[in-house]
Design a protein that fits this description.
Number of strands: 29
Low-confidence stretches: 1-14, 84-95, 125-133, 148-167, 284-290, 306-328, 442-448, 465-471
Number of helices: 3
Mean pLDDT: 78
Distance between the termini: 40 Å
Length: 508
């Protein structure tokens, strides 16, 4: 059962907010190849833009994942045992060992979800998927309100649903977060099958969601409004906004946490990759930059009055409001305008996917390749830590390797490299192929690797379905993702299909 973080300590930065570093487990072996376990077609017929595995293992060792596309989100259960089932085409049911457990539909039919992520904790028992919410005849749960209702009603609804009480009673499975074209992050309790809350703040599409690997309550969201926001789901508060003077100058398309949870990377349509600090160690004593974000983040875990009735009846000007209570903000969000690194030297076009690989960076543009590179800092820049307006932001990089893939010049196709060891890289393309590379070999560093390494595994998502889809029609693979243990590889496509492969480590 997760414990509420203890009060922050001034002498120990990160203590009580980040999980203690107990050391990394031994790196799993690199698979020899991948075997197709199953393929499923979702019944809504919309492109699937994102898939995410839950880090929480349910009863019996079953894994849980979610996909999203259009106004729909689907939750699947994966049997941990090897599968012998052939791929099947189903509507409303799983194929093989990928079983549909829940389907959610936004009340706004014009919503399109681009991102989903599991994090935080829901209330209730983690056993099974208890249908306590309202479902229709097809078993689909509708969340939110339709746009046909008045703006006044929708605003009131947002206020009333915020948010989860900060209580240790929340010890169930992780919450499911969804973001899309409406700019509002929907938080779903998958045990009660209901909308647990909403996170409002972005002024445009939400393009990516990522939970911290060191604290399950901390969520990053990227948006078309040129900002990245940091949220604390325990209190439902927006801790920080990363935008402004040295921020992105175009849509932010992707974010990625460092494995230690103290910093993150972002990229977007301004061709830039930026690195930001959330925790700045002991280098920042000015109260600005990363240190300021850290201080506000710590405050976000403390109880604070949310309802006006809990506040003082006197406003800041000394005037009493009607009813004896004043309107007050529950939390003061901090604005961070200065990344500690920013470069547009890695790509000449917009960057639609980025990921930390240790202290290195993997990033992708629309030129048929993923680039592995290292941010370069001078000794002075390393000592200075977070950058302020009086300093030039470091931008030098060292190219290490390129992973090339043909027919991958379309935007918003996302790769994955499983954390924390990042020994593999997988990416799909516009003709339905998925390639898998090894990033490094045991005992070797990057300087000894082939800078243009060929993939070791070529997976196809064509030719397994008949009927409504021609067997050889090319279709874009929008995203690939490994499960937390690296034993499964999942791909989602524009034709509403989900594909899953099992890792094969030894010859039979």
């Amino acid at each position: 059962m997760p414990k509420r973080p203890p009060p922050p300590s001034r002498s120990n930065r990160g203590e009580g907010v980040l999980a203690p570093n107990s050391g990394q487990a031994e790196a799993p072996p690199v698979p020899r190849k991948y075997g197709l376990r199953c393929a499923v077609r979702e019944g809504h017929g919309r492109p699937i833009y994102c898939a995410a595995f839950s880090r929480h293992v349910h009863q019996g060792g079953t894994a849980v994942l979610a996909t999203c596309g259009g106004p729909f989100a689907t939750v699947y259960e994966v049997d941990p045992s090897p599968s012998s089932a052939a791929p099947t085409e189903e509507k409303g049911e799983g194929g093989g060992d990928l079983a549909v457990r829940q389907v959610y539909r936004d009340a706004d039919d014009e919503e399109t979800f681009y991102a989903c992520a599991f994090g935080g904790r829901g209330a209730g028992s983690p056993a099974d998927f208890v249908p306590l919410g309202v479902v229709d005849e097809e078993g689909v749960v509708t969340i939110g309100e339709s746009r046909g209702r008045s703006q006044k009603r929708r605003k009131r609804q947002r206020v009333e649903t915020l948010f989860l009480p900060g209580s240790d009673a929340h010890d169930g499975p992780p919450l499911l977060c969804l973001g899309g074209t409406r700019g509002v992050i929907k938080v779903i309790d998958t045990v009660r099958r209901c909308l647990a809350g909403t996170l409002s703040g972005h002024g445009n599409d939400v393009t990516d969601l990522k939970f911290s690997p060191a604290n399950e309550w901390l969520l990053l969201s990227a948006s078309k409004d040129e900002s990245v926001r940091l949220w604390n789901l325990r209190g439902g508060v927006n801790v920080a906004v990363f935008a402004g003077h040295n921020g992105h100058r175009g849509q932010v398309l992707s974010v990625s946490w460092h494995a230690d949870g103290t910093r993150f990377a972002s990229c977007g349509m301004d061709n830039a990759v930026k690195l930001w600090r959330v925790f700045d160690g002991d280098r920042d004593t000015s109260g600005k930059g990363g240190g300021r974000v850290e201080a506000v983040l710590r405050r976000s875990f403390r109880p604070c009055p949310i309802h006006p009735s809990d506040a003082s009846p006197v406003d800041p000007n000394g005037e009493h409001e009607a009813g004896g209570a004043r309107r007050t903000r529950a939390f003061d969000t901090v604005l961070q305008q200065f990344p500690y690194f920013s470069t547009n030297k890695a790509h000449a076009n917009y960057v639609d996917c980025v990921q930390f690989a240790g202290d290195l960076i993997l990033s992708k543009s629309v030129n048929n390749k993923v680039v592995l590179w290292k941010p370069v800092f001078t000794k002075e820049e390393e000592d200075r830590g977070t950058i302020y307006s009086t300093h030039k932001v470091p931008s030098s990089i060292l190219f290490l390797r390129e992973f090339k893939l043909e027919h991958c010049n379309s935007w918003y196709i996302r790769f994955d490299s499983p954390s924390p060891h990042h020994r593999l890289l997988a990416l799909g393309n516009q003709v339905g192929d998925v390639k898998v590379w090894t990033i490094g070999e045991d005992g070797d560093d990057d300087s000894g690797c082939d800078p243009n390494q060929k993939y070791f595994c070529n997976l196809s998502t064509s030719g397994s379905f008949t009927g409504t889809m021609a067997s050889n029609d090319p279709c874009t693979v929008r995203m690939v993702v490994f499960n937390p243990h690296g034993s499964h590889l999942l791909a989602v496509r524009d034709d509403s299909t989900v594909w899953m492969w099992d890792a094969i480590f030894h010859k039979k």
